[in-house]
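quick one if you have a minute, typing this from the bus. theres a chain ive been looking at and ive put its sequence and its fold in token form underneath. please have a look and point out which stretches look like helix strand or loop to you. anything you notice is useful, everything is just below.

***
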Amino acid sequence: TQLEQFGFLPPEPGASLTREIEVTSTDSFEPVAIDKVVVATGLSRVMDLGDPEVLEIGALQGPTDTSPYDGVLVQASGVVTAVDTNGFYIQDVAGDGDAATSDGIFISSSDGVAVGDLVTVTGLAEERFIGNRALTVTQIDALTVVSDATGQALPAPIVIGAGDLPTDSSNGGIPGAIAAFEALEGLLVTATGFTA
């Protein structure tokens, strides 16, 4: 369950305003959390969130199944590799050279972008449960998306063959399987050698 948004009139200049929010969850798979608070007048954001941590996507993703920057204001750049209904994916074309970290990430945003755009995204890094999955997906909840260039070449997709998929009994069991797929999260991939 997601509380999309709500609002109220701001106080007079110099005055303060306090509001209590009670959230109850009946979904055992999803923790209750306040995602973010944005103070705005009209369409202008006025909350000072401070300077973002400027990171490569690999550092933001980290080598484990959760980001070390969860809940932190971050900034990252990459080429748009895919566009979805609720955001888009970006990937660091150069990469960080670490096979344990993904160089791609999902951006939750309504900004209009196209595949091949080079963008710089500033927003809150977060781990989000999608559906009934037991593991979270790392993403950036974008506050700003700046287009730096268009028509950029996409990174070559990572080829995954049928023998590359980890199983319960290979690559360290379930933890190894999670680590293997976590390193591909948000990346451009292609599959070959599979049969339906």
Notes: The longest helix spans residues 173-182. Residues 1-8, 40-47 have pLDDT under 50 and may be disordered.
